[in-house]
Amino acid sequence: MRILKYIFLLILLALVGITVFVATQKGDFEVSKSSIVKTQRNTVFDYVNDYKNWETFGSWMQKDSDVKFNYDAKTIGTGAKCSFDNGSDDGYIKTVFVKENDSLAQRANFNGTTATVSWKFKDTIGGTKVTVHSKGTMDLMSKISTFFKGGITSILEDVYEKSLRNLDKTLNYEMKTYSIKVNGIVQRPSGFCLKQTVSCHIKSVGKNTKIMMAQMVHFFTKNKIAIAGKPFVNYDRYDVANDFATISVCIPVRQQITISPGSDMASGETIAFTCLKTTLTGDYSHSKEAWATAKKYIFDNGLKENFAGNYTEVYVKTIDDIKQPSKWITEIYIPVFPKAIELPNPVAAPINPNVTPPETTIPPSETP
């Protein structure tokens, strides 16, 4: 029995000694990791810049199936934020600085451990060199827990290495796997919606659409407004020559809703019209090709665009439905005039010489 007590005391003393040793060590850390992602820089930057994409490449996010992610109304750019919780661990990460297609700066907190995280994107042979760097300070509990896992430096290096590898794999396959199908002439129904409208340069349309869509979903949730269909974008103006576009980001509602003056939201209505429907299955980066395919079909089949109608993209499946970009579904509707139906030439009936033709009565107004 004494031997067991001695063994227990030795173990206890060892644990106390390790704890004291760890507690006296510096809590500061700095880790950096780089990798080549075989995708063009602007695509890589846009993907990392949106927190909703992190679940597809963040190794620690994929490892813990119990973790729950909460996204703010803004998930892209300066001020974007994502928080997470799995019952025992929690934290958040927030973007504090953005230089378009170049770099990101973020502030993170994980179980009391604070850190700054920076991303650098640089063109290189074969794609984009992505460097992620973090620097921070651990509290006592974090120092003890990470010590038994090999140390914070080893942990973060492994996380960053796997995340960058996942990022390359995701972009190389998911972003490049897509299909385009022209469905044919359909009737787009009428209905009511709430919308936000913005005018911008054409290159900013995609980014503004994501930002405004997230804001609108947040608005619907906050005000407990029922969504009556898939969100869509109306292209009110698309002037390539002057690099200018006006878009309305819309979410359908069951009935018309009155919005107070001064709000960013507005009440809208979709008018029914005949259009050519085209379906893109895959990432939005292929939208330009999908629109070109639809326009070619219109030309090849002798159709005429109805410029008075709504040029529309409907987002049937998005990142909120499924994380893999290769499985997103976007429907494109281009308003066209119904094609005229050619009637066959009437065939003259044979004349029977034994039948007297009826008399023809001329209306009084037409009497010569």
Question: What is this structure, in a nutshell?
Answer:
The chain is an alpha+beta fold and 368 residues long. Helices cover 28% and strands 34% of the residues. It has eight helices and 15 strands.
Portion in strands: 25-35%
Mean pLDDT across the residues is 82
The gross shape turns out to be globular
Taking pLDDT < 50 over at least 5 consecutive residues as the criterion, the unreliable ranges are 4-25, 348-353, 355-368
Radius of gyration: 31 Å
Biggest sheet, in brief? 8 strands, antiparallel
Number of helices: 8
User: How many beta-strand elements?
Assistant: 15
Approximately how much helix is present in the residues?
25-40%
Strand order of the largest sheet: 8-13-15-14-10-11-9-12
SS-derived structural category? alpha+beta
Q: What string gives the helices and strands in order?
A: HEHHHEEEEEEHHEEHEEEEHEE
Oligomer status:
single chain
N/C terminus separation: 135 Å
